[in-house]
From TrEMBL, chains A, B:
Protein name per its UniProtKB record: Metal-dependent carboxypeptidase
Active-site residue list: E267 (proton donor/acceptor)
InterPro entries given in the database record: Peptidase_M32_Taq
Record EC number: 3.4.17.19
Cited Pfam families: Peptidase_M32
Binding site for Zn(2+): H266, H270, E296
Entry cofactors: Zn(2+)
Tagged with keyword Protease: yes
CDD domains: M32_Taq
Length: 503, 503
């Protein structure tokens, strides 16, 4: 077999993987949005089966041999094919390090834990949740040890690299130390400074259907492609599905539309990245998103940089009024100045997904520190609630004692076996600030366009800067080509200072 | 390897197949209910991939060898294991006769044709539909020829056996000839006799949400398990999903609730069969439904035998009134006598799924005759509309000239590559009449129970007679153990005479 033939065989193999990933993604989406409770056991088994099949296909000895063979023909491959081969190699390494039985056991335990969590969180029931989470963490640690051995990275870094290829916890420690030094005081100052602000909160009841209609209008305005995606409801909002059919979800609270509204715009940012991936390469590793820090940068670009800006809120205000007005919402509450103050109000609170932009990184740092300790064995599952409470008190001045529901049981990630994922949220926030800075330089009247609801130039810029590259570049290269430099946290700090300076 | 070990390996293999079938069924359901149009190409490819994988697993040489080996230990297997092995053998034979490339091509062409059909039918566009259907039929004929060669059956019978193991078109020809001789005159007489009936038709608008709420109430009343299933909307109603999570669909017409109402109860009959399959054997071939004629007998048992009866309508009337009353619906229209006349009104019409019980078999016979000719090469795709029109005129006195939408483009089956399926509808109707006759003998006050909305004894009887047996028995054995005799069309003829005699 020639190296060229080997490469062609690899493309065919990864196309097959793409098809199975499609079924798996859709079945996962369904389990969170549509599935009746009685279906969860069978679903968990089916998801574990296909996850194990995908791991077998990507991680097989045969795939490894084909990659080795294809490497000999590297010079005859196009640039994109070479990048594709590099990504195949990375996926093969990740898949082959861990045997499929362990992958399967991990998927099964995660599915059990996640399904139980939906109920147990509602009941604030830590006691019954703890053993299920322990099982997931034991299997995660087993995986981490094996991946560490194979990669030469620390166990935690070996997991982190699944989501953020090429990043290390020592880099993150440095950046996070800076934020940890800066943010608690900044949060306090901002709270102090905002005390005098007059906020007109829209009150009354906002029926789900009206919130949904507004969300659909705004998704359409910013460029979500409804021919290749939809919006539904789930306990924990997420962006799922496949690039050809992106499924985003939200949850509605009838007495407060703001949670769902910004949540939808956030997931829309993720969705636009998926929908904008390079069409010719969707079935191949190089056509996939470039890590979760970049993915999160696109959701935060949408939510934080664009949709919480004064320009966007002056465009969205009238639409919000049209959908949500009721006798308890004076016209003044829909004015841009008021919405801007509302949507950029700093108030330390329990729930990460509802956190303001300034306290959010502190939620992430808390989780990052705890999960490093969990993976390294320095923290026992039974001690999570206490450790959580301590750090919440230290970083945000809040106690979560006996409040598991709004404390350590609020997120889906650990239940789902995802460790090493949380830091990507804050890497994303920093990437987003840097990217938006570059977009403003490239599009001189950007804010005026946004205030008119015209996102064409911006979407085009994002497509050229990020979306259309898939995994062609490394993370550093991608940021370099998109913004002219690699990650520089100054932009994020600067953005926060601007965002929270008085109007 | 011992025969016992081989059998155990086969169970593990078919469990894996069960998991992939789960993903495939759910993705199919999604494509009909949730998927945006732009997702259809990727979905078609993913469905074809898993269909080909399942075919490979079930049809592989290795599976054949394991079956042969397990046969040597047959005496050491339990009765259920022996029946399971027989069903494995049957599935292996069906899967191994046709190579996976052809299965894949057939699945892809079907997916393309079905997806296009959704639009083209709306547009009454036969011209663009014809080449897509031709492609499906060519690949179907190719399959039929190979299956015929392998089984020694005629090409059409080889396809029929995929849905109705052990049946032949010569038996069906005989039974259908009898119905064809009896029904056209019976339909005419009944139309004549019903002419003097006063029907009070509920008119006005019946919002989808109210129709849905009524449907959910009735599904619950007759025993649909919502912990293991749900109700949604699609172009063509169907019962899909998996036994652990049964998904039924309907379509709503706001000016006529009756179409959706009886459609939902029909699919509920299918669903209850799936939900009632033997729990311990769900992942194995012997735990699957016993052919489509029996499956259809359960939907028609629910719809025709139970829900269109006077007893049921006297129970359902008040519920219907509670959900659907409006200024244009006088109280008298919800009375059992009136509903009975409405729901048993004979009126030859174009659409099979809306047909009354007496003309329905004539719709089936038309399709059966055409599809036999299509498979045998005696009818060209381009001649379908003319042949359809001719037979409609002959059997039901209706012309479908230039009306493809309500003629040969009304059904999903052929677009989806299902040939040999249609006759099972009428086999089902006959089985249903025979089973209901047996149930009445077994439960003396059955109709009184139904009129009170009490379905416990009846569901228990159906479970014992049919559901809990899965594929343990052959079709003939199953009818014998459930009713005391094999299929006897007298019960169906007798049922029609009773049903359409004046109140």
């Amino acid at each position: 077999m020639t190296g060229q033939t080997a490469y062609q065989e690899l493309e065919a193999l990864f196309q097959k993987v793409h098809h199975f990933t499609h079924l798996s993604s859709m079945a996962y989406w369904d389990s969170a949005t549509m599935m009746p409770p009685g279906g969860s056991k069978a679903r968990g088994q089916a998801l574990a089966e296909v996850s194990s099949l995908i791991n077998d296909l990507v991680g097989s000895r045969k795939t490894g041999d084909l990659i080795e063979k294809a490497e000999t023909a590297r010079d005859g491959l196009s640039d994109w094919q070479q990048a594709n081969l590099r990504e195949m190699q990375r996926q093969h390494f990740n898949a082959s390090s861990v045997n499929s039985e362990l992958v399967r056991a991990h998927a099964l335990a995660s599915s059990r834990c996640e399904n139980a969590w939906r109920e147990l969180r509602m009941e604030n029931n830590w006691k019954d949740f703890e053993p299920l989470l322990s099982e997931v963490i034991d299997l995660t640690r087993e995986q981490a040890a094996i991946r560490s051995e194979a990669s030469g990275l620390s166990p935690y870094d070996a997991l982190l690299n699944l989501y953020e290829p090429g990043q290390s916890s020592s880099t993150i420690d440095t950046v996070f130390a800076r934020l940890k030094a800066y943010l608690p005081d900044f949060v306090k100052q901002t709270v102090e400074q905002q005390k005098g602000e007059v906020l007109i909160r829209p009150s009354g009841s906002f029926p789900r259907e009206k919130q949904r209609a507004l969300a659909l209008d705004l998704m359409k305005a910013v460029g979500f492609d409804f021919n290749h995606g939809r919006l539904d409801s789930s306990h924990h909002p997420f962006c799922g599905g496949v690039p050809e059919d992106v499924r985003i979800t939200t949850r509605y609270t009838e007495d407060d539309f703001s949670e769902s509204l910004m949540g939808v715009l956030h997931e829309t940012g993720h969705a636009k990245y998926d929908q904008g991936l390079p069409g010719a390469w969707l079935s191949q590793p190089v056509g996939q998103p470039r890590g979760m820090g970049i993915h999160e940068s696109q959701s935060l670009f949408q939510e934080m940089q664009v949709c919480r800006s004064h320009a966007f809120l002056s465009f969205a205000g009238p639409l919000m009024a049209a959908h949500l007005s009721n006798p308890e919402t004076p016209n003044a509450c829909w004015e841009a100045d008021n919405l801007y103050r509302l949507y950029n109000h700093v108030q330390p609170d329990y729930i990460r997904v509802n956190a303001d932009e300034a306290s959010y990184p502190l939620h992430v740092i808390l989780r990052y520190e705890l999960e490093k300790d969990l993976v390294n064995g320095n923290l026992k599952v039974r001690d999570i609630p206490e450790a959580w409470d301590e750090k919440m008190q230290e970083y945000l001045g809040l106690s979560t004692r006996d409040n598991y529901r709004d404390g350590c049981m609020q997120d889906i990630h650990w239940t789902h076996g995802m460790f090493g994922y949380f830091p990507t949220y804050t890497l994303g926030a920093m990437n987003a600030a840097q990217l938006y800075h570059a977009a403003r330089k490239a599009i001189p009247n950007l804010e005026e366009q946004i205030s008119r609801g015209d996102f064409e130039a911006l979407n085009h810029w994002q497509s050229q800067a990020i979306w259309s590259w898939g995994s062609y570049y490394s993370i550093d290269e991608l940021m370099l080509q998109g913004t002219g430099e690699t990650l520089n946290p100054d932009y994020f700090i600067h953005h926060l200072q601007q965002r929270f300076s008085p109007l």
